[in-house]
Write a structure and sequence with these properties.
binds NADP nicotinamide-adenine-dinucleotide phosphate; alpha/beta; Rossmann fold; 294 residues; 10 helices; single chain; six-stranded parallel beta sheet
């Protein structure tokens, strides 16, 4: 079994970006910039946003954190997005989800300029992904494809089974890996909560992507020998031996499944780190695209 080391690969990606940013010095066009917009005080969201800003600084990007009160109106949020859509110093705009109930998430996502949609959630980006155009791919699916690529794992003609059909993971990874392209071209099956006899599908997977949100859901008897396992899950489970009172586990029962797998991502240290690395890559891409247009 080989561990798919998200820490190592994401560090490589960051180093590559650092060098690219250093090479931009004195070009008169500044450096890539990302603005994160957080509404409210959800602790998990706060920690995601602060780590994204920290990473930006590490690679030499310009970054700004807009931390807004949970009672901000939808209009105030949309106006702020308009402001950053027009601000040449910021090439990427990330609105941390979920948003409070009184704000329409779809409206907010659609307000972000597709040129600055570094999360890849705008319908324009989603549509381009589905039809195989170059676009911003959502960061988690992009991170999955990138780690498979960097470990030279063949995807062409392989049966890739995704458990989960969310708009941020399940649907986009299925569409990405279905493309008749390098590092894709897989035979894709998508399962969800209405899938009867789930093991029938997961046991046939050459590559299994678990994006369910249920701790340790995938067990050894649900996979075949030699499977490549991508565990997207990030779940907090109570653990009184930890100072925080919890530990983070994936959707795959790692101890059970790892001995049967040819490759497997750990949690933590797997796809989570790849996701933030791809956010940086998308921001760099937005910078290049916008400068080309200017
Ligand atoms: N690593 C990262 O950077 C990253 C990024 C995003 C999310 N995550 C984590 O990944 C996990 C999934 O996130 P998400 O946003 O995709 O979750 P989500 O929106 O809650 O979607 C979960 C999916 O799993 C399916 N599902 C639930 N129970 C099932 C069951 N018993 N059998 C088969 N399918 C089942 C659901 O089916 P239905 O559609 O039928 O309800 C749904 O499609 C979470 O742990 C999340 O924290 C990690």
């Amino acid at each position: 079994m080989i561990l798919l080391d998200g820490k190592k690969i994401s560090s490589e990606i960051k180093e590559e970006l650092k060098e690219k940013v250093a090479a931009l010095k004195n070009n008169g066009k500044g450096v890539p910039g990302l603005v994160t917009i957080l509404v409210g005080d959800n602790p998990a969201s706060q920690s995601y946003v602060s780590s994204k800003n920290k990473l930006c600084k590490e690679v030499g990007f310009n970054s700004k954190a807009e931390n807004l009160d949970k009672n901000i109106t939808e209009k105030e949020l949309l106006d702020l997005i308009d402001k950053y859509n027009a601000d040449d110093n910021y090439h990427g705009i990330l609105v941390q989800l979920p948003l409070p109930k009184h704000i329409d998430e779809n409206k907010v996502i659609q307000r972000i300029s597709p040129d600055k949609d570094v999360d890849g959630f705008h319908p324009m980006s989603v549509g381009n992904l589905v039809i195989g155009n170059d676009t911003f791919f959502p960061c988690t699916p992009a991170g999955i494809q990138e780690i498979l690529k960097r470990y030279n794992i063949e995807t062409k003609g392989k049966h890739l089974v995704v458990v989960g059909r969310s708009n941020i993971v399940g649907k986009p990874i299925a569409n990405l890996m279905l493309q008749k392209k390098e590092n894709a071209n897989a035979i894709v099956t998508v399962c969800h909560s209405a899938s009867k006899d789930l093991s029938k599908y997961t046991k046939d997977a050459d590559i299994l992507v678990a994006a369910i949100g249920v701790p340790n859901f995938i067990k050894a008897n649900m996979v075949k020998d030699g499977v490549v396992v991508i565990d997207v899950g990030i779940n907090r489970v109570e653990d009184k031996t930890k100072t925080k009172g919890y530990r983070v586990v994936g959707d795959v029962d790692f101890d059970e499944v790892a001995p049967k797998a040819s490759y497997i991502t750990p949690v933590p240290g797997g796809i989570g780190l790849m996701t933030t690395a791809m956010l940086l890559s998308n921001t760099y891409k937005a910078y290049l695209n916008l400068n080309k247009k200017a």
